């Protein structure tokens, strides 16, 4: 097989284990991926993938083709990093991945100002809580909130995101039995150490910013990020509780890109922007 697009399909099917997931990875529609899979399975004396109760599974032949695809992918990714590192000019693309809330509440204006200051650098900004892979060239720089980032990546640890307990002041006028927390999916064992440990979970919402907005507009108790909650006039810290550190902010890039001038420039710029907003991030500008 000499078509890189076929190898890309094999990689996506192996990683997604379904036509729908592979289509999303490839930015194709379901029918196109289905046709590509049928073509792959008819090109050889044996199938490349088989259907199982767990989804699409590689056959022994498919496993050998996948290994070849992974080798080609690593070569292509290494070539891209070499190309980036080969220029000293402050121009070209930078792919930046960061959480949507940090983009919206801390860095949106600053990223626009950077682009205006350096018009020859084009920022491609990907906002997601999913961790973009630097190894796979999904991003050149990532902003992550974590206590355990990938050890082989390089960059700097800044300081923690701080959290506090917030609600609308009038919400606490309700009877204690009616109070409830707005939480993220997963465990909420932190409620036991909160100002209202006996309040139950009223609503589970996976969007960080919407949890704050719901508490501000409709009521509810929320464990919120200070840099968001303290910028919402309707929210106040519950019973004057003090914020506390959660997870660290990291600015990271790949080892092969650390010396690229435009990469270093943007990382320094982001670090300076976040440092100037440290009081907001750590809850020292509370209302």
TrEMBL record:
Residues 1-59 form the HTH lysR-type domain. Keywords: DNA-binding, Transcription, Transcription regulation. It comes from the Bacteria. The keyword Transcription applies. InterPro entries: LysR-type_TF_proteobact-type, LysR_HTH_N, LysR_subst-bd, WH-like_DNA-bd_sf, WH_DNA-bd_sf. Signal peptide: none annotated. Pfam families: HTH_1, LysR_substrate. Belongs to the LysR transcriptional regulatory family. This is HTH-type transcriptional regulator GltC. The gene is gltC_2.
